[in-house]
Write a structure and sequence with these properties.
291 residues, mainly alpha, 13 helices, flat
Length: 291
């Protein structure tokens, strides 16, 4: 069957004519399956329309597919492309199993293993890493480094440079300050450093791209530096000749955004009693080296 174009303005009956045409052909050819391709949001509506136009109130050899479902249908009918698709929950379960087995070795991540959303973030990061355009290049460079392919080539190049340097030294005996000889010496490549540099460049490119892609995410690190704010508060409340107890109370109020001067004597009294329960206020002077 050749390609047909059905032209007409909006509401002129193009879809209705097409549906009736498909219904007629499907009724006359029950052994042939007909596919109706529509956008995802119109699959159910199209099915209802085709059923209502059918005299038997049913469609047996007409499939209404979206572009997404058409891809699945193609994969189902082509054996070479059949593969199990691992969903997000499956990926998270695999990560949980791996992290649980390596929990003792993961000093940084073991605390976040049970935190909400931790495994989902790890899964997303690994998926983005694996689908990055430069990831195959990183894997290829790692394989070259591990197999020592590049190392052998670099060693061959170094051998040629060494042979040329030796010949020049024997025939011309230039000094070590000779520019041409210095260039040959500088051309000697350390194969291990070179390969690791290439791999590091690949990693840096991927990391920068991922960081740029998530710079506007709501969970990004805030611009305010908590450590800097903490040190600034300590500097403002402490001085060499200040009373350690009063400085500590001022620091607590500063961190809690309380105005120490506006507190009543009764409030200061209770704040002092609560603060005295801290070991820091019980013995503010360091006792390093003393038992």
């Amino acid at each position: 069957m050749s390609l047909h174009f059905i032209l007409g303005g909006s509401g002129s009956g193009k879809s209705t004519w097409l549906f009736k045409k498909i219904q007629k052909d499907a009724s006359e050819n029950p052994g042939i399956n007909y596919l109706v391709l529509v956008p995802d949001q119109f699959t159910l509506e199209t099915q209802k329309t085709l059923v209502s136009l059918n005299g038997n109130k049913g469609i047996l050899n007409i499939d209404v597919l979206s572009f997404h479902r058409l891809a699945y249908r193609a994969f189902e009918e082509v054996p070479a492309l059949r593969r199990t698709v691992l969903e997000d929950m499956g990926k998270i379960m695999i990560l949980y199993q791996v992290f649980s087995k390596k929990k003792k070795e993961m000093l940084y991540f073991k605390r976040g293993l049970k935190a909400a959303g931790f495994l989902d973030e790890c899964k997303s990061l690994l998926c983005e890493l694996a689908t990055h355009p430069d990831f195959p290049r990183l894997m290829a460079d790692l394989e070259i480094y591990v197999n020592g392919i590049a190392g052998k080539q670099v060693q061959s190049a170094n051998a040629i440079v060494d042979a040329v340097s030796t010949t020049i030294m024997k025939q011309h005996n230039p000094g070590l300050s000779d520019p041409q000889l210095r260039q040959l010496i500088a051309a000697h490549i350390d194969d291990d450093s070179f390969c690791r540099y290439v791999i590091q460049q690949d990693i840096n490119k991927i990391a920068l791209d991922l960081r740029e892609a998530h710079k506007d995410d709501f969970f990004s690190v805030p611009e305010d530096n908590p450590l800097e704010d903490f040190l600034q508060t300590a500097e403002e409340t402490a001085s060499p000749d200040s009373d350690p107890e009063q400085a500590a109370l001022a620091f607590i109020c500063k961190r809690l955004k309380l105005n120490l001067k506006k507190l009543s004597e009764e409030e200061k009294k209770w704040l002092k009693k609560i603060a005295q329960k801290s070991d820091l206020l019980k013995n503010p002077n360091p006792q390093r080296g003393r038992k």
